[in-house]
Amino acid sequence: MAKILDGKALAATLHEEQAREVTKLAAKAGRPPGLAVVLVGADPASQTYVANKRNACKKVGIYAPDYNLKSETTTGELLSLIDTLNRDPAIDGILVQLPLPAGIEKEAVLTRIAPDKDVDGFHPANLGRLVAGEPGLVACTPRGVITLLDRSGIPIAGKHAVVIGRSLIVGRPMALLLLNRDATVTICHSKTPNLPAMAREADILVAALGRPEMIGRDYIKPGATVIDVGISRGSDGKLKGDVRFEEAAAVCGAITPVPGGVGPMTIATLLDNTLDAYRHHTGLSTH
Ligand code: NDP
Fold this sequence. Notes:
Layout: E1 3-4, H1 7-29, E2 35-40, H2 44-60, E3 66-69, H3 75-87, E4 93-96, H4 106-112, H5 124-132, H6 140-151, E5 160-164, H7 171-180, E6 184-188, H8 195-199, E7 204-207, E8 225-228, E9 232-233, E10 239-240, H9 245-249, E11 254-255, H10 262-282
Parallel strand pairs: 1-11, 2-3, 2-4, 5-6, 5-7, 7-8, 8-11
Antiparallel strand pairs: 9-10
Bound molecules: NADPH dihydro-nicotinamide-adenine-dinucleotide phosphate.
The site of NADPH dihydro-nicotinamide-adenine-dinucleotide phosphate (NDP) has 25 residues, from helix 10.
């Protein structure tokens, strides 16, 4: 039976470490780190994600003021809030929860966030740094996967990683992070022929398709590490990953469950990114 990569337990450990770090740094800086989480509209899934992010911040001592805007908010109003937050010295990170209501220009909003406060890592300046292999703020989910691999003692350098999915939020930054860590990387997508054979080449297989339980035994090399990023709600109302867990766990070496795998790591990494931005703004480091 495969080793279960317990993202929930690791995220809890990271939150304890982050809380200690915040206490230490805030004493020197004279202020806590600040993360503004902006929610536009009342989408129930977004409300839950935002509540989880704000609660995690409060748990570790990050100042996290609420910005809940009505769904009729205009692009101009949202840009003006972002300008205010960009100037606010108490705010180190700005997160605008996606998806935004129809009618708001997403690109205009995401590129208005100052790159040094872009804790979601979606700004072209941060994407460019990632491509160049330079330090910068990186999207939370893929960075969280790297942390999970590192803290689970799974080597990356020299391994063949196959990433299924090429979105700007998950697949592409995931592939670049693995490449920057000296993996040999293959990126697959909906036009990739013979996907199972391609996936079976992987020592590290990252499934980020958003196709519930599509990945079964025939996609997995015995002993591989399987990272299931997908989260979809099945017809039975339950959360489903992209991987058929039981089937995969019978052949692979290590696997993330859904829920309790990559999801909690995404939130823990949002706080890591906020702390990185805070260290940058205050010139402080505990290392
Ligand atoms: P997108 O829909 O933006 O991207 C999906 C990618 O998968 C695309 O590149 C698409 O290819 C590819 N794809 C879709 N179907 C197939 C297929 N049958 N075969 C091969 N490739 C396929 O999704 P996201 O990247 O935003 O998210 C992916 C999943 O991860 C979703 O389930 C999402 O909910 C989840 N997620 C989980 C997070 C977490 O914290 N755990 C955070 C963010 C996302 P193409 O480009 O050709 O269309």
